[in-house]
Design brief:
Bound molecules: siroheme, iron/sulfur cluster
Number of domains: 3
Radius of gyration: 23 Å
Oligomer: single chain
Shape: globular
Strand content: 15-25%
CATH superfamily of the largest domain: Sulfite Reductase Hemoprotein, domain 1
CATH topology of the largest domain: Sulfite Reductase Hemoprotein, domain 1
CATH architecture of the largest domain: 2-Layer Sandwich
Strand order of the largest sheet: 1-2-5-4-13
Largest sheet: 5 strands, antiparallel
Length: 588
């Protein structure tokens, strides 16, 4: 650890008696719907965020009322594997305690929004009763472990699930505080006994994320993970994993010391070694990460500071052995499989498309009720995908007709969604996210419709393009790994990023700043026109804009920051919307 002044959150963690703080007192304080200030940091480790409904903010302020305090709860679901009974339990919580919707996240977890303080305990107890939990869904610890949905070959799925499960279990904080506060278990007499063997007194400098990808699918965006595992399958068996480190996407507009970074492969390990490697990487980050500046605290910055070779040496010193050289791999697919998939044994799977992961009942498309009815039939598993959809998995032949009729009854059977729509992601954004600068989830469907019109004009409707929208630069819908990304800058204005690799192996580049929707569409139109005319056979849009020099190929986090800096400098000399955005970048 360095000797700079520690960030205030470090003090809150170290005073918290292993994440207890005064959460119990905050919960019983009936004067306010909020938690005490320090507790708002600590509850994150328990899987909760204090929020307020931003649509109501101004009105409440005018009425001199405190903000409409409410909470978001995130339930971890390792690799997104969920049973029908668990789905039913989550559905019930959404309707009884939350805002009547379920939100599937980009990390294969559940989120509930709009829960008031007095309902928190009942909600968390119900999640635990369903054998899921919320501990470490947020906070400076390892988060929900991601895993490829329905990896191929099918024979390796149990091994992949086992690795995800053991990473998740072993890296869950050991504190008993969670069970004391939320599940009314006896308090431990001496909280010093609660010391965590991996996380110590003050946990990690910042959040930490792990994902397991199985080529050819990069559905989990392995290069966005602090620690990624790329499965290597040999002779139909799981031989092991290439290990990647230092992925991470969050940044701040105009702060060029912050940047997204794609992870680097540092070697290969066997399935039995995967957990040991995770502990070595996490403890290296625990001891070397920057605890003074939370904007510089993720593993990606530790690696940029130490250098990749030195970080790898540190990990190997902790392991006491060396990783073998990384083995060849190839990703060809991103996003989720669409519609029905058949397995040779007559088992099938169906991907239910959910725009932005929101499970709700709308006229003609009753996703909440429909998925409840399918769960009640108890004929399949529910796999939450990294792309905000749910796969009804392992449907036996004899149950398929029943599932088909329920899908049709609830308007969920459609398989003709355009490729761009089915790949598109948006973060939650307004009205719940306190950090949103512009609309995201509520804007996605409208914006995709505009892109579909543009694509249709140029004969590109069937061409898949990854499109992602976030309400701010934190990167929750992994925008910097999309071929086209809109990142909120101000209400109705977005910065635009272009040119990630379709398979998620290369970051995109900053291309234009603070554009309105008409400006974005005007700027994209000529690119779509030339792409339609001049693309090489099956060349993805992201590769095309790089090959033709619209944006540079971004090969590192600092290179991304340099491009952003150049764009900002060029824009400073031009008013917003003055000429096509591409010209702005070319001039730099
Ligand atoms: Fe995120 C913060 C939602 C995936 C990077 N994220 C937030 C908060 C909690 C806002 C806050 O701190 O007050 C958002 C809550 C909004 C709401 O109202 O629900 C939020 N993040 C989400 C979810 C729900 C987006 C979604 O639409 O699905 C995802 C929940 C994942 C999960 O189940 O654990 C979510 N967040 C991500 C991802 C993508 C991923 O992990 O695959 C990223 C980028 C990858 C990364 O971490 O580098 C991401 N979220 C952030 C950051 C920036 C972190 C950084 O290193 O700078 C923040 C802000 C922060 O931590 O200070 C953030
Ligand atoms: Fe909120 Fe920003 Fe994350 Fe969107 S990207 S959910 S606006 S923090």
């Amino acid at each position: 650890m360095n000797d700079k002044t520690l960030s205030p959150v470090e003090g809150i963690k170290s005073r918290s008696r292993h994440l207890r703080g005064t959460i119990l007192e905050s919960l019983t304080d009936e004067i306010t719907g909020a938690m005490r200030e320090d507790d708002t940091q600590l509850i994150k480790f328990h899987g909760l965020y204090q929020q307020d409904d931003r649509d109501l903010r101004a009105e409440r302020r005018q009425q001199r009322l405190e903000p409409a305090w409410q909470f978001m709860i995130r339930a971890r679901v390792p690799a997104g594997r969920c049973t029908a009974a668990q789905w039913l339990a989550m559905d019930a919580i959404a309707r009884e305690h939350a805002n009547g919707t379920l939100r599937l996240t980009t990390r294969q977890a559940f989120q509930f929004h709009g829960i008031v303080k007095r309902d928190l305990k009942a909600s968390i107890a119900a999640i635990n009763a369903a054998l899921l939990d919320t501990l470490a869904a947020c906070g400076d610890v390892n988060r929900n472990v991601m895993g490829t949905t329905l990896a191929n070959p099918a024979a390796i799925r149990p091994a992949i699930d086992a690795v995800c499960g053991s990473l998740s279990d072993h890296l869950t904080p050991r504190t008993r505080a969670y069970r004391e506060i939320w599940l009314d278990e006896e308090p431990v007499v001496n909280t010093a006994e609660d010391l965590d063997p991996i996380y110590g007194e003050t946990y990690l400098p910042r959040k930490f994320k792990i994902g397991v990808a199985v080529p050819p699918d990069n559905d989990i965006d392995v290069f966005s993970q602090d620690l990624g595992y790329i499965a290597i399958v040999e002779d139909g068996r799981l031989a092991g994993f290439n290990v990647t480190v230092g992925g991470g996407l969050g940044m701040s507009h105009g702060e060029f010391s912050t940047f997204p970074r794609a992870g680097d492969a540092i070697g290969f390990c066997t399935p039995e070694q995967a957990l040991e490697v995770a502990v070595a990487v996490i403890t290296a980050q625990r001891d070397h990460g920057d605890r003074s500046n939370r904007k510089h605290a993720r593993l990606k910055y530790t690696i940029e500071t130490l250098g990749l070779a030195a970080f790898k040496a540190e990990v190997e010193a902790r392991l006491g052995w060396q990783l073998s050289p990384a083995r060849p791999w190839q990703f060809t697919h991103n996003g989720d499989r669409r519609g029905w998939q058949e397995e040779p044994e007559g088992v099938s799977h169906f991907t239910v498309f959910l725009a932005s992961g929101r499970v709700q009942d709308r006229p003609g498309r009753t996703a909440l009720a429909g998925l409840r009815a399918i769960a009640e039939a108890d004929v399949c598993e529910f796999h939450l995908t990294p792309n905000q959809n749910v796969v009804l998995a392992n449907i036996p032949r004899e149950a398929r007709a029943k599932v088909e009729s329920l899908l049709a009854l609830h308007g969920l059977a459609e398989t003709s969604i355009s490729p761009v729509r089915s790949l598109a992601l948006a973060c939650v954004g307004l009205p719940t996210c306190g950090l949103a600068m512009a609309e995201s989830e509520r804007y996605l469907e409208d914006f995709v419709s505009q892109i579909e019109v543009l694509q249709a004009r140029h004969g590109l409707v069937e061409t898949p393009v990854t499109l992602r929208i976030t309400g701010c630069p934190n990167g929750c819908a992994r925008p910097y790994l999309a071929e086209i990304a809109l990142v909120g800058k101000a209400p109705g204005r977005y910065s635009v990023y272009l040119g990630a690799a379709f398979d998620g192996s290369r970051l995109n580049a900053p291309w234009a700043e603070s554009l309105s929707e008409p400006e974005i569409l005007d700027a994209l139109e000529p690119l779509f026109a030339t792409y339609a005319r001049e693309r090489l056979c099956a060349e993805p849009f992201g590769d095309f804009v790089v090959r033709t020099g619209v944006v540079p190929a971004i090969t590192s986090g600092p290179a991304f920051a340099d491009t952003a800096r150049a764009l900002a400098a060029a824009r400073a000399t031009r008013p917003i919307g003055d000429g096509p955005a591409a010209v702005i970048l070319e001039e730099t």
